[in-house]
Design a protein that fits this description.
The chain is built from five helices and four strands. The chain is of the alpha/beta class and 156 residues long.
Length: 156
């Protein structure tokens, strides 16, 4: 299964989702992330807290979804409300789409401990959702079956 995570700026939540999915579901799911208006750099705290949680940050980059036109994802997951409301490029037309609506830990102000807690909560939520997706990927479902399963998770 191939998943594309979309967040407008592709610097935090979509990056976290890409890294966690590729490590937790290696061999079952290939994940990439992109944005409609990429920031051009990954948020430094995204890299810091991914690394501290044991996830590889190699190759993570903030990029436009136009660079992934040849990726052909089975599933597009929007992780921010702004991205959920955007019109996706035509090449994503055959992909199933779900919205996770994750809170943005990079928007958290406060002490480093408070920021760490916000990133930790987001990382835990993503890991939980990736575990569900991993279960679905193991079933090798058709597109229609996958859509039904996603609806049961309340994610479609």
């Amino acid at each position: 299964m191939k998943i594309l995570y979309i967040c407008t700026h592709n610097r935090c939540r979509s990056i976290l989702s890409e890294a966690i999915t590729n490590q937790e579901a290696s061999g079952l799911i290939t994940a990439k992330s992109a944005g409609s208006q990429p920031a051009g750099e990954v948020h430094p705290l995204s890299l810091k807290f991914l690394s501290e949680a044991g996830y590889s940050t190699d190759g993570l980059t903030s990029q436009s979804w136009e660079k992934l036109a040849d990726f052909n994802p089975d599933l597009v997951v929007t992780v921010c409300d702004a991205a959920a409301g955007e019109s996706c490029p035509l090449w994503m037309g055959n992909s199933l789409k779900v919205h996770w609506g994750l809170s943005d830990p990079s928007a958290m102000s406060g002490s480093l401990e408070q920021q760490a807690a916000a990133f930790g909560a987001c990382i835990d939520e993503i890991k939980h959702r990736v575990d569900q997706l991993k279960t679905l990927a193991q079933k090798n479902l058709s597109r229609d079956q996958l859509k039904l399963e996603l609806e049961q998770f309340g994610a479609y």
